[in-house]
Amino acid sequence: MLSTSSQIDQPGPLHHGGRLRAAAAHFAIPVENWLDLSTGINPNGWPIKTPPAAIWARLPDDDDELDAIACRYYGANFLLSVAGSQAAIQALPQLRVLSRVSVLSPGYAEHAYTWKRNNHKVSTVTPDQIEAVLPNTDVLIITHPNNPTGAVFPIAQLLDWHMQLAKRNGWLIVDEAFMDATPEFSIASQTSKPGLIVLRSLGKFFGLAGARVGFVCAHPELLTALNNLLGPWSVNAPARWMAIQALQDTYWQKKTRQHLLSASNRLKTLLTQYQLIPTGGCALFQWAHSRHATYLFEKLAYQGILVRLFNNPPSLRFGLPRSNLDWQRLDTALAACRTSGQLIGA
């Protein structure tokens, strides 16, 4: 059985969604025959445009208009473009002395993993534990909307937690990788405050994960330190050009927000039809508990459908199908799971 779940204490790199070649080899199904719903990436991403040929011959220009355009898009006063938000996730632990770090769980495992790897004291916390642990926390890390639960917090609550942390030079890090479809919940506009750090990315909403373009919204002093650590040319020139075009495409953005929210509701309805009632989700995925999660993961995989398996708690995360044929394929596969003699709901 191929498990895509992750534990922060395991050696080596963590495993995430999108490990399609590994799944293809394990289940003996060619890569081109798979429906990959494991990543939470918009399957109908921003329509790719070809950069001018001359861009490939030049070093990236960090003084181009990308950061200014991104500031307008995110509503931030200051930000730094990076090679995907993952680059910032790996670098930020190096900018603090050893700290007590609380990471929202369940959540994106790289946050806890990278801080632990840099010898910080890391604990995972559930939403209802945050208030209790905050007095003994130097860095609080939240994915917002959360991955995989889809949970969001009121902006006033986030600002209160930040204020408590900032009084003792602490940080609140908010990973907003899945925020673009619901910008009204974003806290990026508040990141001029020292100690408030928001991570954004073009990977999920824009469907440009392969371009490796992300942004860190924060106080200028922290951005300078982060830029010095990462060094020059963090984002390649063609990716910068593409990001500039995508961030200015307001028509596509508006249309896509509407489509994603509608598709996510459609997915929720489909899963509920098969007793996989989602317990969380956002515009780009739905998350369902099931004591049969491992069985379902394998049953779907043998039909060439890859979803994300979590062991703790036993659950599955489903990304959005791309086309009507993909929707029908998922429907048929879930029906096959139901008729195989095993209950598939919780």
Give an account of the 3D structure.
The protein has 346 residues and is an alpha/beta fold. It contains eleven helices and 13 strands. The strands form three sheets. It has a seven-stranded mixed β-sheet with strand order 2-8-7-6-5-3-4, sandwiched between helices. It has a four-stranded antiparallel β-sheet with strand order 9-10-13-12, with helices on one face. The N terminus is likely disordered.
Brief overview:
By secondary structure, this protein is α/β, with parallel strands linked by helices.
Helices and strands in order:
Layout: H1 20-27, E1 35-36, H2 66-74, E2 79-82, H3 85-91, E3 100-104, H4 109-117, E4 121-125, H5 130-133, E5 139-143, H6 155-166, E6 171-175, E7 196-201, E8 214-217, H7 220-230, H8 237-247, H9 250-273, E9 280-282, E10 285-289, H10 293-301, E11 305-306, E12 308-311, E13 314-319, H11 324-338
Parallel strand pairs: 1-11, 3-4, 3-5, 5-6, 6-7
Antiparallel strand pairs: 2-8, 7-8, 9-10, 10-13, 12-13
Helix pairs in contact: 2-8
How much beta, percentage-wise?
A: 15-25%
Give the full name of the CATH homologous superfamily of the largest domain: Type I PLP-dependent aspartate aminotransferase-like (Major domain)
Strand tally is 13
Looking at CATH, which topology of the largest domain would you report? Aspartate Aminotransferase, domain 2
Q: What structural category arises from helix and sheet content?
A: alpha/beta
Summarize the biggest pleated sheet.
7 strands, mixed
Indicate the CATH class of the largest domain.
Alpha Beta
Give helix and strand order, one letter per element, not per position: HEHEHEHEHEHEEEHHHEEHEEEH
Rg computed from alpha carbons, rounded to a whole number of angstroms? 20 Å
What value does the average pLDDT take? 92
Strand order of the largest sheet: 2-8-7-6-5-3-4
CATH architecture of the largest domain: 3-Layer(aba) Sandwich
State the share of residues found in helices, binned by percent. 25-40%
Q: What is the overall shape? A: globular
End-to-end separation:
21 Å
pLDDT < 50 stretches: 1-14
Summed up, the helix count is 11
